[in-house]
Amino acid sequence: MAAAGGCCAALYSFLFEYDTPRIVLIKSRKVGLMNRLVQLAILAYVIGWVFVWEKGYQETDSVVSSVTTKVKGLAVTNTSALGLRVWDVADYVIPPQGENAVFVMTNLIITLNQTQGHCPEFPDKTTVCSSDKNCTEGFISTHSNGIQTGRCVVNKGHSKTCEIFGWCPVEDDENVPRPAFLQGAENFTLLVKNNIWYPKFSFTKRNILPTINKTYLQSCKYHPKTDPFCPIFRLRDMVDAAGQDFQEMAVEGGVMGLQINWDCDLDKPASRCVPKYSFRRIDNKDSSHTVSPGYNFRFAKYYQTPEGVETRTLIKAYGIRFDIMVFGKAGKFDIIPTMINIGSGLALFGVATVLCDVIVLYFMKKRYYYREKKYKYVEDYELGAGESYGSQAENQQCRDVR
Known about the structure:
Blueprint: H1 2-16, H2 29-53, E1 58-62, E2 64-72, E3 75-79, E4 83-87, H3 89-92, E5 101-120, E6 146-154, E7 160-168, E8 189-198, E9 203-206, H4 214-219, E10 232-234, H5 235-241, H6 246-252, E11 254-265, E12 276-281, E13 296-304, E14 310-333, H7 335-348, H8 350-362, H9 367-374, H10 392-401
Parallel strand pairs: 11-14
Antiparallel strand pairs: 1-14, 2-8, 3-4, 5-7, 5-14, 6-7, 8-9, 8-10, 11-12, 13-14
């Protein structure tokens, strides 16, 4: 029965009693001013940073993007090896279609009329020989142009190198043409068509804005001040904007980044959601501290003679690869993030109370007096000690009542 009565009393206390923290009003100019300053700083942070700068009242989404490109321009060369020649898009854009990137050839080393046969290897420290003993039949290294036959033969000039079976004559890529072979590439233009989508808001747009018509598109060139929304970029202008010299970069090639930023506030009219372009060089431009500077690769064009002999023209292409990188974030008002940030801001006001409590209770001269007013000490009732209060006056009043 006693146990049942105790359970009922505990349940009664749980349902019908209320506990509240003690509130102590401290009349102190220093503490009061500090409390208000901390609260003001928290309020400025919540309003200024969270809601105004970071737009904490908005739901956000990341951009989904697709990019297509088109290069235009002609270059003319006149050399003893190739004669007078015009280079168009089909010659210097490799491959014709790329994914978010386009390569424009600006320099090249060309080896004409290669056929499968026997010829001297290109001379280096591993291929120079004095007799057949220095050559190993069937040997292939990482940098070989073919498989060695085991013979030591006379190369151009007076040196001897090991003979190989492969595409002959072998490529000589020791001397990169300076200045760049296609100097006129600086005036080529790049058309970038970029479509973006914010799936959370069902919002789509492209960088060819509704105000741009066909006539304007045929004549405009991007300029950050006078024409910031034209999607046609001259190659030299992009390299200059990155702080580089085009003709210097064209010799050994490099990698350029074209960045498109779509930061959109969808609480405002859609016409204000526009792209912002920026440019930077991505690869290391300091060739003196780079083992393999620039950007280059090889490709070949194959032919067949009337006699049925397969021939090819080998090209080592140097050029600039333009990587197109799209960034963006869109925001739109939503009640959920608004309420979450308001609640977080209100919770931060508790920091002012905690800070003031720490200073009052641990650093002020009258800290012991404030502690007596702040805390009410209760001893364990089961030990029979009863209750004790923070101040002697209150304890005396309890004893008088008893």
